[in-house]
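User: Can you model how iron/sulfur cluster sits in this protein?
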Amino acid sequence: MSTIGDRKVRRLFIRTFGCQMNRYDSERLVEILGEEDFQPVDDYRQADFIFINTCTVRDKAEQKAFSYLGRLKQLKRSQPGLVVALGGCVAQQYGEDLLRRLPHLDLVVGTHGVSRVPAMLARYETTGERQAFVDFSYDFGDESDGRSQLCRPEVSSYVTIMRGCDNFCTYCIVPMVRGGERSRPSDEIVREVASLVECGVREVTLLGQNVNSYGQGVAEELDFAGLLRRVAQVEGLLRIRFTTSHPKDLSLSLMQCFADIEPLCPHIHLPVQSGSDRILKRMKRGYTREHYLRLVKELKAIREDVAVSSDMIVGFPGENEEDFQGSLSLLEEVRFDALFSFKYSDRPQTAASRLDGKVEEKVKLQRLQTLQSLQERITFEKNEVQVGQTTRVLVEGPSQVGGSQLSGRTPQNRVVNFQGTPELVGEEISVLISAGHAHSLEGVVCVEDNVNLKVVKERSWCGK
Ligand code: SF4
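Assistant: Here's the modeled complex, given as structure tokens:
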């Protein structure tokens, strides 16, 4: 604990595993605890409160979270005042049992409990009572709790529009830990987006397990396409993105939004999971390879420059060499702009965990490597094509490559690194692409295209 004036400031460290949904919850926790005089720190050893936000979608992520938690045992012994909490899907799945298994864990906070953390902490600090909160209620009160009044100094922000999922794909644990699908009223979403824009946010990503089926449980008659049109009217909002889309629910009216809604970025994440109809059926995905390919074709016909990224699982139970070749050929056919690929792992309570035909670990690994090197070639080729083109880039902040490099994203969600000054952060600028790499692009700021941007300090060779 430290003091600022006569305020006691406690230090918070959050470690987040998993998807955007978890990152969003972690951001909210920083805001909520900020109001309680908690300040985030980068080093967990300096913290008074450590919150581990976990993911259980893949066995590896769950193991990582447990191993991280294990490392805190010693720290907790040497700093008895330290409070350790576990949140997210693992907390939701195992609940109170975790308190019995892990004596150095103080709080267990299920996926719907982020707004309860201050109260749980206060109770722990006054009574020493270790607590678990796991709830499946679909209340969105959490999101509205003062969140819109808080300003976050960021360029791009997530906004949850729905939670849970009704699909029960056979490999997926999400419906079990996040509950059934429930959408958030559009007025509340629009209000939150407007207040983020007022705080300086330029881009929002609308978040849900399956945004395409938005509308369930909401009194008004509004589908996801309708919601996008409403959000696009927020004054000052530069860019809109959304994730994730289930192919079986991708409607023509949603696809049409890519042509009609100016702030909507031409990028869609459309998880395919397999290129084999036999495996798609075992996964209960509700579409065929042909249907998926038709969707991509229709999207490209509506907006030629739309980028498509996807998820793919290798080694699903029963996947044979022919099925796997089907996935490879799908990659060649679609030529995804980006792909997130994973080895199948059994998750508790899922239907796939009970399926026969489990694929050997070494075969899964081999397939994953083959798939990933094919996609790397495709991404690299697609990035190379960008060289010499000028593109609009929303500048997000310092680049991971270090130095005075900044990083931003194109409308198609490609990462671009370039030399620039910090004043550019939050601006949408023109960048000439000078090199394409396997995972990113390199570019040079075009002064000529940004004459009205006084913040551009140096001239470049762009357009010369
Ligand atoms: S759509 Fe399928 S994979 Fe996605 S969250 Fe729902 S059950 Fe899981």
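A couple of observations from the model: Residues 4 and 37 are 10 Å apart (CA to CA). The first strand starts at residue 2 and ends at 4.
User: Helpful, thanks.
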